[in-house]
Write a structure and sequence with these properties.
Length: about 375
Amino acid sequence: MDFIDLKSRQKLIREEVDERIQAVLEHGQFILGPEVSDLEQRLAGYVGVKHCVTVSSGTDSLLIALMALEVGPGDEVITVPYTWISSAEVIALLGATPVFVDVREDTLNMDEKLLESAITSKTKAIMPVSIYGQTPDMDAINEIAGRYGLPVIEDAAQSFGATCKGNKSCNLSTIGSTSFFPSKPLGCYGDGGALFTSDDELAEKFRWIRVHGQQRKHHHPILGVNGRMDTLQAAILLAILEVFPQEVVKRGEIGDRYTSSLSGLDELTTPVIAAENTSVYAQYTILSEQRELVQNSLKDQGIPSVSYYSVPLHLQPVFKDLGCRAGDFPVSEKIANQCLSLPMSPYLSEQDQDKVIEGIRDSATPRSK
């Protein structure tokens, strides 16, 4: 059993992928070819924003967003400690300081009630992370940010296709950022990412920065990076977009089936989806005080599972100079010690899902009434 089944989708769209790749090979515009602008228009329309700017990776999308906001030495950017390192890494790379806010025990997303106390005169931006497929309470975060005049970047690498109060992830704040890494809900066959905004000036800066700060040929008004998306990856994503809406529906159904089947087990917590949210279940992640026992039991049955972010960012050695200690962000630390992600994809068969569910039940105790 695959942890993430990428092969079934490839079989489904193989003919169209081949045709689109062949078209790129024939026209030869491998950098910023017509497929790139086509994809950007399609993605902007899907999300419901004015601008989409594709870039070379999800990490670069965050970096470019911060550069466009002119984040630099002396600035602070607020994010969460329970996430992949790129969320804080890009802040530090620009000479700014990551400031962490703990996450909620239910949705595992930024605890908006703790946000305002982290804001200082040095705060330049707020970067909540939409973890495991659903968004944080973006209305509350935006309201707080608005009172302080701060831009909000939604790190939506795991939530593309999800909604909050009917609005799509990446259309919930000043800037939306996502990743097209192959394992993501909308994943290509290599690295890729995108930025979303309805702010004309920011979108223009994104486009300059992704080509070395170039406004027009031989004219560079700002510093930039080599952050362009390959035309071949854009072509592949155009093919995947044809089946993506159906995949979002299937992800929701499979996630709901996991939850209804596992919610009665003791010492095991299933994902909580906020009432106003939908989730694309980038990962279906349970919490268990007996994580190693459950994981080993699954392994013995040939079922893969992954403990994501088992060392939260404030305890990573690269950030030791921030002065954080164990106990500073107790919810993140608890989740890091208990999280276990199960096989998940739109193409997970009921037979395989039943095998996972039975494997979990074999290693858990029914909850007493």
